[in-house]
Structures are given as C-alpha cells and as structure tokens.
C-alpha cells in the first residue's frame, strides 16, 4: 500500500514515442517520485520499467479502434487519487498536448481544485522524421508543418486538403492507418500528384520500428501493412544515407 500524503498533486507528462532514451529528465524524475502512474496503453514497457518501486502502475487502456476506458472515467481516477493525497503522474504516449485529451483532464482537475503541471514529451512525428534522416521543415520546401489526425469524434477527419495538396507540403498524420484511402482520395481530388512522397513509420523510435516508403498512389496499401501504432509522414521519403553512425559510436 502506498503511503498517503497530506496534499496530492498531478503531473501530466509525455512519455515520448517509446524509446526510454528519449524521455526528458523532468519526466524521468517524476516517474521516480510518483505514488500512482496512470498510463496509456501505448507507453512502452521499457519506459514503465523506469518507474519508482513505490509506484502503483494503472493502465488506462486507450487504443485506437480497440477496448478503451472512457475519458470521463480516466479523469475521475486522476481526481480520485489526487484527492486522497497521492502524487499522481498521468503518463501519455508522445506529447500530452497532441491528440491526448489534455484539456479535458485539466478541466477535471481545475473543477476539483487540484494543482497540476504539464511536462511535454517528444512526439511521434519528430521521432519518425529523425528515423528517416529528414527535417520536418526545410528552407525552400515548406514554410509550415501540419500535425493532423486521421480520425476525430465525428469519424474521418476533414482537413484543409487544398493546402495539403500543394507541392512541398509536409504533414504528420496521427491515427491515419485506417484513414489512408480517405486521405489519398481527398488529396487527389484537390490536385495532389500520385507521386507525392509519403512514409509510414510504425513504432517510431522503438526496437521494432519499421519504415515503409510510399507514394500517395500506394499509401493505402503500405499503411495497411503496419500492425502497430504508426504515423504517416506526407511529403517526406527516407533519406538514402550512404554513411550512418552506429549506435555504439555515439
């Protein structure tokens, strides 16, 4: 049993894309101090292994198109433990402010009068682009970067397709595997070339990472090959690197 404290607080933090080396020092410190860690399913076992021995780990079970705990129940659990004096860490995959329902959980904490702090994390788009040897922005290519979702509460998510279809546009599409054909159709309707480069990065930064190069024409078929969580990078292709540093040399 975890010892209760006189006053609880909540840290809402990003666990990064999965590689524990990509955790921030601040998040690692909070993992060692937390009494209760409420974590998403996508937080990797390697990251969870860094929790302090006193921590109670509770999976909140949010997966795309699979069994998921209702958001209101997650918020209630966060409030429940904090009100009883525990130091609570709400640990989300990637960055908590990107498609992580951070605002809803902060609203619940504010309503209960509970103190909180947000710690950002490395998002999957950054890790995926790094694995390709690509920059998410590049002078002369794209003056903006769009982080979009393939799905929202209403279903397949509409976007500014005209902007995304322009030559040189770069976007990271989260939760896009099942939306790939929809994205392809919308972009082509707005004039995007079928030869537009794209890449599907599965399990970005993890030991089982898989990089699949595609074009807009082949995107639905390539995206369907990914079994784990994946981010689609529209407008980017893997760099053909002749020389790569081995991990042991770093």
From TrEMBL:
Residue ranges occupied by any Tetrapyrrole methylase domain in the UniProt entry: 10-219
InterPro entries: 4pyrrol_Mease, 4pyrrol_Methylase_sf, 4pyrrole_Mease_sub1, 4pyrrole_Mease_sub2, CobA/CysG_C, Siro_Cobalamin_biosynth, Uropor_MeTrfase_CS
Pathway(s) the chain acts in: Porphyrin-containing compound metabolism; siroheme biosynthesis; precorrin-2 from uroporphyrinogen III: step 1/1
Keywords assigned by UniProt, alphabetized: Methyltransferase, Porphyrin biosynthesis, S-adenosyl-L-methionine, Transferase
EC number: 2.1.1.107
Gene3D superfamilies: Cobalt-precorrin-4 Transmethylase, Domain 1 (3.40.1010.10), Methyltransferase, Cobalt-precorrin-4 Transmethylase, Domain 2 (3.30.950.10)
Annotated family: Belongs to the precorrin methyltransferase family.
This protein's name: uroporphyrinogen-III C-methyltransferase
Organism, as annotated: Thioclava marina
